[in-house]
Amino acid sequence: MRYDLLIRNAWIVDGTGAAPFRADLAVHGDRIAAVGDLASAHADEVIDADGRYLTPGFIDVHTHDDTNVIRTPEMLPKLSQGVTTVVVGNCGISASPVTLAGEVPDPMNLLGQAEDFRYPSFAAYAEAVETTTPSVNVAALVGHTSLRSQVMDDFARPASDAEITGMERLLRQALGEGALGLSSGLAYRNAFHAPTAEMEALVAAVGRAGGVYTTHLRDEFAGLFEAMDEAFATARHGRVPLVISHLKCAGAGNWGGAPRALEKLEVAARHQCAHCDCYPYTAGSSTLDLGQVTDEIEIVITWSEPHPEQARRPLADIAADWGVSLLDAAQRLQPAGAVYHNMSEDDMRRVLAHPLSMVGSDGLPNDPHPHPRLWGAFPRVLARYSRDLGLMSLAEAVRKMTGLSAANFGLDDRGVIRPGAYADLTLFDLTILEDVADYDTPIAPARGIEMVMVNGVIGYHQGAATGERAGRMLRRTNRITDTRSPHTHSMEESS
User: Is the model's pTM score more than 0.90?
Assistant: First the structure.
């Protein structure tokens, strides 16, 4: 047969963790049609990979792109680093099922303004994604804080039985309409007062529907290990797969805790499906949280509504200029965003290299001066931590951003290179691959990403978007099962 596209002479890293192999790959329609020696094959278009690496398109399991896939569908920060699928709705905040009037609760303001929350049902959100046709695929979680915003007028308390029932109803509907599962952000003030019992009721609903539970732990600082225990217990109660979001040992007093945290994860994973995600940086980024204000680390303000002139300055310098304490300065700046240099390199490397961890950027696309992870996370893993430092093999690095991610989020026929899988593909030159974005100049595309294909359509080629957008809304239609043993997953595709 004649194919739509042939990629010749590629080193293929298939997403399973298997060693790279030299082969050709053919695409027909939106699927991979053949892999192997295709010297005699013909196609409408031929790309000579010339020994460069061809992988499944990267799956960013931890994003806050909920409204951006609709407002800025080109999604250049993700496409330019080889990402073909984003999982939105993390850390307890999602664009649906939500409608808002007035002030947007923290940290939902990371996703946009009140007018951006106009999706009263998951189905309405999915339809908006489909109508827009972003350049990347979108799969979505429902946020616990977002559910709270629809039934509670005061976040500083546990939800009542009636409010939990209201949240369950919204959650069940969203799960029935294709949501992947539930996320929580229990460290944030608008979810912190939710007790374990509130979470168990909602996570049990996720378990009955066959979804996944992801959590920004209640404490990533001194109470990290207790917070991990809570997450494991909540997931066991609901009988759901668990993903701990951006597992870290935050705060100078907590540095060196990664071995113990990873041991706890390993022990839990013997009895339940448990994984984590990680970004390859030692600084976090979020809204300016008074609970994280300390003189032990550098905190840089990225935006401030009442004092926009203070953006891109260290909090300590602002406080000194104003002649006030760090805490007083932070209060004056709120609502605001910040980058917190609160992790150790050794801890981060240990989490990143662990077999149970996936790669997620946790980028904040609406921050005017974002953390460099928004543009650079995936190339940084491949170039700095795999190629340069040898922290893990290239095959293992790719598995952490493709095959493992697809399995844990039930993304059928994605994250792997094999005949029949969707043609989500990334071609890169490992010799020059580099994450260009840094803290001073965070908005910068990576170097070395040569081609990105989504559902058989080339969306990025030789350093520029092609203007062709072929992303889809990926709805969950089957149970996401324990990835410790082979299972089949099914997703409904919508173009």
Answer: yes
